[in-house]
Amino acid sequence: MAEPHLPVFQPHIGVDTIKAVVDAFDVGWLGMGATTQAFEKQIEAYLGCEPRRVLATNTGTSALHLALAVAGVGPGDEVITPSFNFVADHMAIRACGAEPVLCDIRDDDLGADPASVASLIGPKTKAIIPLHMAGIPCRIDEIYALAREHRLRVIEDATHAFGTRVGGKAIGAGGDLTCFSFDPVKVITSIDGGAVVVRGQEELAVAQQIRILGIDKDTVERYKNTRAWEYDVLRDGQRYHLTNINASIGVSQMKRVDEFISSRQRTCRRYSAAFRGLPGVTLPATDFTDVSPFIYFLRVPAARRLPFIEALRARNIATGIHFLPSHKFTVAQKWRQSAMPVTERVCEEIVTLPLHSNMPDQLADRVIEAVTELLR
Ligand SMILES: Cc1ncc(COP(=O)(O)O)c(C=O)c1O
Fold it and tell me: For residue 131, which atom of ligand 1 is closest to its CA?
């Protein structure tokens, strides 16, 4: 008998989360409210990011757009980010009327290559968006050194890296602006949702206004589960706030975040131990200490990737590809970009394997058995 379908992603929604949603409906205030604020406070405490402040958003993409707006990115500006990235980053830059400029990545951590970033910095450059791919930290100190030298803002795309620590500190606890995603497949989810970490109270006030249509008092009122009937509109804004219902899911997931991360680390370590030494295979360059793994990926020789994916599919094991090279997209043809030797190679080799929070060993064993048999 065929084994059941094994998906790449499997959100971990327990009875605790379901109860949290029912309780949130019982409160009767469905939109942004007190639970949204509770979620923000919980994230601040978890990251240990004081005096930085956390602002919850309705997606990770809106978190990126909001962060760019707070950084003052606008028409005529350029923002450097890897081609090896989800198109959400590129579209967030475009939403500001700015131009994405695409850099290459390093072969080890698959994050922005500081040399490639440096080669692209020009008079219009306003910010850099480095990505911590799969939860693995990129060379962030070198990116900050470049930013200091050229007076640029840095928006860390930590949508894959909620809970990853660098030098003993959570990503988001230091640095400039940081964005997270809590979409359905991330380590914790609020179904859709995200967050921006800003540098302090002043930026928080601006970000809160941009988050809700530029309105001055709405956030303060809604955090009391009430509405402001008289208000001013201070600036251009979006409708990017997170609802109480989504936040209630986030709050319940946050209570289990350490359990989710350590279970994922354990599965990743079992994968890496089993796959080490397979011919032509490159593993993630980490032992997963301090890494909050969003996905587990392998790199296989380009010519073997499609047959490998199909052979896994025949065994009902799903795979993914993170990412397609953005510089090849039609829309990207007019964007400035560096040479992409590493991006092009990695994009032909990379395969994402199933990784879930609290993934039963017997499911991971199915993957291990199939991969080792196919690639040995
Ligand atoms: C690298 C990267 N940045 C940004 C996003 C956008 O996050 P969201 O799906 O919450 O909008 C994603 C989503 O997977 C992503 O992979």
Answer: 1
pTM for this predicted structure: 0.98
CA of 181 to the centre of ligand 1 (A): 6
For residue 225, what are the domain limits?
Answer: 15-254
| HSE, side-chain direction, 13 A CA sphere, residue 177 | 26
Q: What is the largest CA-CA distance in the chain?
A: 68
CATH of the domain at 344: 3.90.1150.10
Residues 270, 166 share a domain = no
Considering the domain architecture, whether residues 179 and 299 belong to the same structural domain is answered as no
Residues 233 and 299 both lie in one domain: no
Of all protein residues, the one whose alpha carbon is nearest to atom 16 of ligand 1 is: 86
- Ligand 1 pocket: which residues have CB below 6 Å? 59-61, 85-86, 88-89, 131, 157, 159-160, 181, 183, 194
* pLDDT tens-place string over residues 274-293: 999 999 999 999 999 999 99
